[in-house]
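Handout, page 2. Input:
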Amino acid sequence: MSDPILVAPPAGAAERFRPPVSAASEPFWEATRVPRLVLQWCRSCERPVHFPREACPTCLGTELEFRPASGRATVHAVSVMAKPANPTMDGRGPYAVALVDLAEGVRMLTNVISDEPATVAVGDAVSVAWEPLSDGRHLPVFVLDPSR
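Output:
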């Protein structure tokens, strides 16, 4: 596995919102301290689950475990925010908000970090990158695949 891609927030940007941790999401967030991307999987129907939860949304099974994820994805939808609506995003605009389809089969809401966010397009290949949070965790964000 290659070294994780770390991205620094823009100079002067507001501190990112720190997502809350539940009992179901704790293994996901602990893995981000490394940083490493993991996904919850249902052992009953062998399907990935994201966001982490207590029961599988497909079969309602409760035998869930976390497994490593590839970090590869494709942009499903994207919108460029010219001006942040959320104060924790001050100093980051414009920025790309995207739904990405991970290779494992789940969809994640995230940011695609790019010097030119308006060029991020549906179908683009992206890879996971990590933005440090003030509590030692890392937020999974994505960057355009360099072979694009």
